[in-house]
Amino acid sequence: MTAVPVTGAITVDGVLNEDTWLKVVPAGAFIQADPLEGQPASEATEVQIAYDADNLYVAVLCRDADPSGIVVNEIRKDFAGRDQDTFDVLLDTFSDRRNGFVFSTNAAGAKSDMQIANEGRDVNTNWDAVWWVESRRTAEGWTAEFRIPFKTLRFEAGEGRSWGINFARRVRKKNEVSYWSPVSRAYSIFRASAAGDLMGLPALRRGRNLRIKPFFVGGALRGVGERNYDGDFSGGVDFKAGITPSLTLDATLNPDFAQAEADEQQVNLTQFSLFFPEKREFFLENSGIFYFGDIPRNQRQTTRFRPPEEDLLLFFSRRIGLSDAGVQQPLYGGLRLTGRAGALGVGLMTMQSEENEGKAGNNYTVVRVRRDIFKSSDVGAIVLSRQPSGGSSDFNRVAGIDANFRFFRSLSINGFAARSDSPGVTTNQNSGKASLGWEDSTKRLQASIMTIGEGFKDDLGFVRRSGVTRQFYDWASFWQPESLRKRGIRQLQPHARMFHYADPSGNLVSRTIHIANQTTWNNGSFMEYGFEPRVEAISRPFTISPGVVIPPGRYQWIQHLFLFEGDHSRKLSGSIRGNLGQFWSGTQKTMQISLLYRPTYRAVFDLGLQVSDIDLQVPHRSFTTTLVNFRSGYSFSTNMFLDALVQYRSDVKQFSANLRFNLIHRPLSDFFIVYNEAQFTDTTQTAGRGLVVKYTQMFSF
User: Fold this and answer.
1) What are phi and psi of 699, to 5 degrees?
2) Which distant-in-sequence residues (6+ apart) come within 8 Å of 481 by Cβ?
3) pLDDT tens-digit series, residues 643-673
4) Rounded CA separation 452/693 (Å)
5) 571: alpha, beta or left, given left = phi > 0 and alpha = psi -120 to 50?
6) CA-CA distance, 640 to 600, in Å (whole number)?
7) 81 near 170, Cβ under 8 Å?
8) Phi, psi dihedrals of residue 370, rounded to the nearest 5°
9) Where in the chain are the domains?
């Protein structure tokens, strides 16, 4: 399609009555990806593109034969689009068919922006940009107008440039997804290689891309069991500059993450450490460049109960500033350089932590380089380092190389090799992986083998276990016949996978086989039943619950799984997961239930309950663990939100609460009020409480 120059001014109000829109021939003819892949969309969508010296404008008319059925259930920033009517714009500004930016809205003018790397291998939903959008409902359906400043984006200047572009529309009442430039059902709009071309752009002017964001934090904190509050007032600054059109330098001084969303508590019934995702803003932006290792499987359904399956994440930024005991160390600041230099993707990050409680500070550094080859493949290298201050020899370094090849749109061949270096370690410090996979609209096949040496240590990564070789096999078939769709069933997905772990001598350490079928209905709800034969051989005891220890030995059991996810586009919906059967030396009955209620698109109430009833023979112990979490939120507008998270765990008798008010008073400028409380209900200790106020102000030049 061709962008045209603006004639007169464009007011971004969702009303497409400007002269420009009346003259531009719209692009349309969207093609379905789901349910009828390759067929014309059932509802027409018309898109127009225009520009002036500073902005790119996008206008869309989403026609709908039944406008009363348009679904809107959220207006908060970075809303989840799967459960409502949405329109998305992909801009591949370097036309490399790998990376880009996605801007999304719904019929109420909600905003979501994200950055994608390597065709969605990494999606950074925490990337934030300055842009505007307004939507309107009409008798024909709904409309939206976007204004995206060119200085928000990164691109090569010069005449005759073209960008990759694509549009996606979701009609939720039909659970239909369509694209302007067709995309296979197996993928999403993040598949930049499927994008079309945007022509007609002039020799665009790049902004100076300089942002300075000072912040001020004040508050009071009292720890659990303490009597007095400690007051605190501090400030810092974040700095961002475009070094080149495609390289960005970020710096932070005295960073503070008081506004970060609280973690959801988890019940751990395994012998491994729990995984908590990164939520600190500085580490989330441009995080895709640091991704290293396997290409993850595409997730065709979303469920709150899905844990990560990775045993090794070579770089996991949450470890930055975290001691071996799990204590967060304050950070002096750091630098990050990310972007592209020709065919190279470059990422460099260095952070310095402060000395805390007599422990020396540490420097954390990661360097990542990746070179594009062929049409959609790449090779790369990474180096990670944790170096303590004061000349201590307690360092850790990791270096690795990886390669990711994609052929015939569906075939993936990838792997990596890495080695760690830690003082005093004499055992195998190597790790590596090789993987082969095929995924298209009808099937998924994958096989991989990974080895992690018993001496491999990665202080900037997430390593679930070491001293093992893991084999992984995965098969899934996606059946979507018209005869089932007419009966209300969208898809049948029989699938099976196996994780097999062996020690360096070849002895079995662990094996989990998952055999199941998932049934998805036309409204988006789905149900899965599966059974899992498991074998676990542990060499040392571990605590599964306070006072309950699993002794060493070989354990074998079969568990049955049931999962149901309701139609979350409705005002009232729910989810349930059951895990029943044998467990270690006994039995378990674990139920997870959630209720989601959205009375309007401004308010949400989400109640979750997990109950685990465990009965063990060795040791002869029984226990029940209950976890309750209640999350609610209210959106006063698209720029002002109030959120609350209340949790209780019965096994440790712990209650916690997190309340957060956020006002976006200017683009990329926030005002936060955050209240936290934590207490143990079985003691007389005073509750821990904290109140923090944070103000940020963005200055762009």
Assistant:
1) -115, 120
2) none
3) 999 999 998 899 999 999 999 999 889 999 9
4) 44
5) alpha
6) 16
7) yes
8) -140, 130
9) 4-198, 268-439+446-468, 478-538+546-635
Distances from the Cα of 129 to the Cα of 126, 211, 443, angstroms: 10, 12, 37
The whole-model pTM stands at 0.86
Report the alpha-carbon distance of residue 514 to residue 497 in Å, rounded: 5
Task: Please report the DSSP string for 39-53 in residue order.
Answer: SBPSS-EEEEEEE-S
Look at residue 327 and give its three-state secondary structure: coil
Nearest to 566 by CA among 601, 593, 590, 599: 593
What is the average per-residue pLDDT within 72-85?
A: 91
Q: How much of the chain is helix, strand and coil, in % rounded to 5? A: 5, 55, 40
Backbone angles phi, psi at 97, to 5 degrees: 60, 30
DSSP string, 105-124: EETT---EEEEEETTTTEEE
What dotted CATH number matches 4-198? 2.60.40.1190
Three-class secondary structure of residue 317 per DSSP: helix
**Nearest CA to 476 among 441, 521, 500, 501?**
441
33 within 8 A of 490, measured Cβ to Cβ: no
Q: For the segment 431-466, what is each residue's pLDDT rounded down to a tens digit?
A: 999 999 999 989 999 999 999 999 999 999 888 899
Region for 546 from its dihedrals, namely left if φ exceeds 0, alpha if ψ lies in -120 to 50, beta otherwise: beta
Chain centroid offset of residue 42 CA: 31
Which tokens go with 394?
């307690």
pLDDT at site 207: 65
H-run or E-run covering 360: none
CA distances from 596 to 130, 389, 571, 592, 647 (A): 31, 48, 8, 13, 16
Q: CA 524 to CA 174: how far, in whole Å?
A: 9
Minimal CA–CA distance to 353: which of 324, 326, 323?
A: 323
Residue type, 397: R
Q: Before 35, cis peptide (omega within 30)?
A: yes
Can you tell me the distance from the alpha carbon of 81 to that of 169, in angstroms, rounded to the nearest whole number?
A: 10
pLDDT grade for 297, boundaries at 50, 70 and 90: very low
Query: Looking at residue 14, what DSSP letter applies?
Result: S
Between 301 and 487, whose confidence is greater? 487
Sign of CA dihedral 75, 77, 80, 81: positive
- Per-residue tokens: 467: 């001293």
Residue 547, token pair as written in the block: 């006072």
Q: How far apart are CA 96 and CA 378, in angstroms?
A: 12
β-strands 45-51, 4-5 pairing: parallel
Residue type (1 letter), 5: P
Contact 167, 47 (CB under 8 A): yes
Question: Is residue 564 within 8 Å of 527, Cβ to Cβ?
Answer: yes
DSSP string for residues in 265-312 = P----SSS--------HHHHTTGGGG--SPPPPP-SS--TT-----SE
First-to-last CA distance in the chain?
A: 32
Reading the block at residue 588, the tokens are: 């378990």
